[in-house]
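Quick one before lunch.
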Amino acid sequence: MLIRVEDLSFRYSRAKDYSLKNINLKVRKGEFLGILGASGSGKSTLCLTFNGIIPHSIKGEFRGDVYVKGYNTKETSVAKLSTIVGLVLQNPDSQLFNMTVEEEVAFGLENLGLDPEEIRRRMKWALRITGLEGLENEFPPNLSGGQKQRLAIASVLAMKPEILVLDEPTSQLDPLGKEQVLSLVTLLNKEQGITIILVEHNTEYLLSFADRVIVLDKGEIILEGKPKQVFEEVDVLVRLGIRVPASVRIAHEFKKRGILEKAALNEKELINRLKTLIKI
Amino acid sequence: MIEVKNLWHIYEGRKIALKDVSLTIENEILALVGPNGSGKTTLAKHLNGLLKPTKGDVIVDGINTKEASVAELSRIVGYVFQNPEHMFFEENVFKEVAFGPKNLGLSKDEIEKRVEWALRSVNLKGYEDRSPYSLSGGEKQRLAIACMLAMNPKYLILDEPTTGLDAKSAESVKEVIRKLKEKGHGIMLITHDMELVLELAERVVLLYEGIKVFDGTINEFFQLDLRNYDLDKPELLKISERLSVGFVRNINEFVTSLLRRMRA
Ligand SMILES: Nc1ncnc2c1ncn2[C@@H]1O[C@H](COP(=O)(O)OP(=O)(O)O)[C@@H](O)[C@H]1O
Ligand SMILES: Nc1ncnc2c1ncn2[C@@H]1O[C@H](COP(=O)(O)OP(=O)(O)O)[C@@H](O)[C@H]1O
Ligand SMILES: [Mg+2]
Ligand SMILES: [Mg+2]
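Model of the adenosine-5'-diphosphate complex:
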């Protein structure tokens, strides 16, 4: 197991309630894990425990253990953990602070003390894989939203992490930017074998690409399984405030009325099932 | 009524961001859509006087924005920006929401009533004593909306009001928008979320490279080929087209319509 979370509870210093309650979770190497939950359910808090920002930089009451590649995060520095776990946040603007695209990617590498040759090699690779080749000398604030977020991902990738944790990386982007970032995530997982932990409201995407999904509610994991199992629980998801794709919801309505036997997971499945009923 | 008349905006004498745009906003829910850089934010900033026309006029309930201050206009036109992160300055949520009404010189009773209503409307009751900075992203977004609601402006501009919100919070924001419309307010939604437009908007204005290329009903809007504007048709409409169900605005309408067909 690449990540093991055991009986983890966390309460922010000045908060009354626990933001994470008794979380148990394992993530395999190469796995793609989706995290769902209403706002305030603890998704970001959980993400911050994977590279040790919680409990090292953000203080609070931390119980239980998080192991990353065997390292107990409590006993390992954020700097060390960051070479294994890359973290990408919601707002790309808050993650970029260098004058050029190239410097942005090189920045973390220089801090690792790598030789210039290796830095160049990794930089080229990271920019190529994120589709930013040719933009090396651009001023990051001039990039589009999707490019900025891909640059944030490139900077993290250059560190060669085995695990990429992305916390709502598309929520501030326009449709085009969203698509660019999600296709990149798919590619990193399926072709580069990077383990992905993704918080994402686009449930159509998770249904197609995630291996497993967990659903958080008030700091607890309340559903867990393959996307298609989790999305059978339409009523629970809707009650929690999770966006369920139109096709899944429609199929659910017809299933409740005894008209359809099986759920549908996407547009195509739904249309095929309904077509036979209305004969067109 | 807000009237935008032959509005041009040119930044720094160079970049033409709006070209001869005219439109009106009354007691309705109007969606302002268009690809990035098409001029949506520039247009919205003219409505509360944050930007002044390079050419043309913006008239808010009879007041020309060239002759009024932003402070004056912002009592009539409320604007919730897209990334509210950096604009909180009070120590707790209650004070943050009460700040605007206090500046209006309202009574303590009235202030409390407004704060309570605003927080309830965005599902943040119980958060009164929390620090704005301890809130999660979606909670901050809802707090920004509550701050504006408490000012009770006649017109509201919401820039991506449901971005980053979970479905439940988005639902409560939508409900508030509908209620405000019923109470006589005019609402402008700036968004890329076509599902939100389908569910909520009555009229749509489409900007493209600073030009108004479409102004019409929601039904007419969804007959356009949206891919030309980097926009995507909502899944619900794609499904209903494939099954010849006709124009529906939500799942319930779709289900009802299809059930009727099956019985026939
Ligand atoms: N720095 C903080 N101090 C106190 N409470 C916090 C802090 N950050 C988050 N919280 C609280 O912890 C809970 C979980 O927040 P978060 O992990 O950000 O949720 P999500 O990412 O699912 O929206 C929420 O109730 C939130 O208000
Ligand atoms: N302060 C500014 N100075 C110069 N150009 C600007 C400024 N703000 C926006 N622009 C330009 O004006 C055009 C319209 O931008 P904007 O109104 O922000 O579009 P939208 O909100 O639709 O994305 C874009 O080309 C943008 O680059
Ligand atoms: Mg979060
Ligand atoms: Mg804008």
